[in-house]
Amino acid sequence: MSTYKVVIVGAGPAGYFAALALQNLETPELQFSIDMIERLPTPWGLVRSGVAPDHPKIKSVSKVFEKIATTEKFRLFANIELGSDVTIGQLQEKYDAVVIATGSTIGKTLGIPGEDLLGSLSAADFVPWYNGHPDFANISVPLDCETAVVIGAGNVAMDVGRMLALEPSELDLTDTADHALEIFKESKARKVYICARRGAEHAAFTSPELRELPKLEHTNVLMNKSDINGAIARAGDSPEKDVKSNLDAMLLIAGLENKGHARTIEFLFQHTPISINGTDRVESITYSTPKGEVTVPCGLVITAIGYQAAGIDGVPYESGKVLNKEGHVKDNIYVVGWAKRGPSGVIGTNKSDAAAVMEKLVSQLAAPKNAGDIAELLAGKKHIDQSAWEKLNAHEVAEGEKAGKPRRKVIERSQACEIAGI
Ligand SMILES: Cc1cc2nc3c(=O)[nH]c(=O)nc-3n(C[C@H](O)[C@H](O)[C@H](O)COP(=O)(O)OP(=O)(O)OC[C@H]3O[C@@H](n4cnc5c(N)ncnc54)[C@H](O)[C@@H]3O)c2cc1C
């Protein structure tokens, strides 16, 4: 029997699904001992820090992750960062294979004037802020304005728009970070525009998310019927299934009456931002549209136009992704998830993707190295292991229960480590 040591870097969906794929590939002759490194004190990646708090069902996939993590021969090393606490070279030496699953966390920018003004943010900062990611707890989110603009035509833009336009008491029973809930409650924003550069037929929203919008109880959702009819005409007689399903959902929204709520989300298509304007902070945004330039007064602009991967020394990158050939990077390094593909696909997409890469990894294994593991590299740096994480997790859930929430997140790293008992 051969036991191979594999280290997975990043405890998001792709990391866990890579671990599951290795566990599924085990035979009596082929065994894996899996170590997972995570830079935050908490695992689950974007399931914790990305998925919107008003979509709690989606987060139940974390139960699958916990099942994978509580199997024999799996160890969690949270609060350990590849790049600062250990290097890729060190991991390559100790392990038979290294799997990069670090995701794609840097927000793409538009490159237009005014993007640096106070009140202009990336969804890559705003989303982790409301989700209690420790690195974003202190960013400034000025919600003292009547109108906010979200730029983008995907589900992240829709999440951001919804979070801005929900009646904040609807978030009371969610795991929204306490600091964000406080600011949402004081928010003066009543009008939220979601703006797309192209026509509705090109939007990357998915139809289940669109179909949920009319169910919002305290928010008007507006789309212009002639925009959607124009998109239907441009899409032609046999549009792709997803496009048709999106356009059907949008036509339904465009047919809704304005319910007269105080809060509104309005979709603007064929609006290309050309400048964000203001002296000390955002005061308006100017678009180019088929009818000419339009300037809309607003105090907050959030850009949700995609993500790129943060670089790690010793790992090759190209176009915001880890350079790879079907998941193989070089030597004994592999990559899965958003670090491999870029920011596309839902949580489940990472499962089949990781399974294919792990099959490749297994096909390329040489004899086991038996060269030690990460414990020898940490030089006294304390980490959160699975049982310490379970303690922190139980604390968050118990604190949440007192207020009827699924959990109350611990934000500060030092506090998380203390509660985890390290
Ligand atoms: C705002 C938002 C909302 C979304 N909502 C949904 C949804 O509702 N439904 C759905 O199906 N999908 C949703 N998705 C998509 C889904 O989150 C992704 O498909 C999935 O999270 C990608 O998994 P990943 O493991 O590649 O990356 P991630 O989830 O980003 O995980 C990467 C992990 O690596 C860690 N890491 C990064 N660098 C290092 C390092 N140097 N050392 C150690 N650890 C490191 C990170 O801290 C993180 O925990 C959403 C995505 C976003 C951005």
Using brief descriptors, characterize the structure shown.
422 residues, alpha/beta, Rossmann fold, six-stranded mixed sheet, binds flavin-adenine dinucleotide, 19 strands, 20% strand, 2 domains, FAD/NAD(P)-binding domain, single chain, six-stranded parallel sheet
Description:
With 422 residues, this protein is of the alpha/beta class. It folds into 2 domains: 2-105 and 308-383, 3-Layer(aba) Sandwich (Rossmann fold); 109-305, FAD/NAD(P)-binding domain. Helix content is 32%, strand content 20%. It contains 14 helices and 19 strands. The protein has helices spanning 13-24, 46-49, 62-69, 88-94, 123-130, 155-165, 178-186, 207-212, 225-235, 241-254, 338-341, 349-363, 386-402, 413-420, and strands spanning 2-9, 30-38, 74-78, 97-100, 106-107, 120-122, 147-151, 191-195, 219-222, 263-268, 272-277, 284-289, 292-297, 300-303, 307-308, 317-318, 321-322, 328-330, 333-335. The strands form 5 sheets. Strands 3-2-1-4-19-18 form a 6-stranded mixed sheet, sandwiched between helices. A 6-stranded parallel sheet has the order 6-14-7-8-10-9. α9 runs antiparallel to α10 and α13 (386-402) packs across α14. The longest helix is centred in the C-terminal third of the chain and has 17 residues, at 386-402. The radius of gyration is 23 Å and the shape is globular. The mean pLDDT is 96. Flavin-adenine dinucleotide is lined by residues 9-15, 37-40, 45-46, 50-51, 55, 58, 81-83, 101-103, 127, 156, 159, 312, 337-339, 345-347, 350.
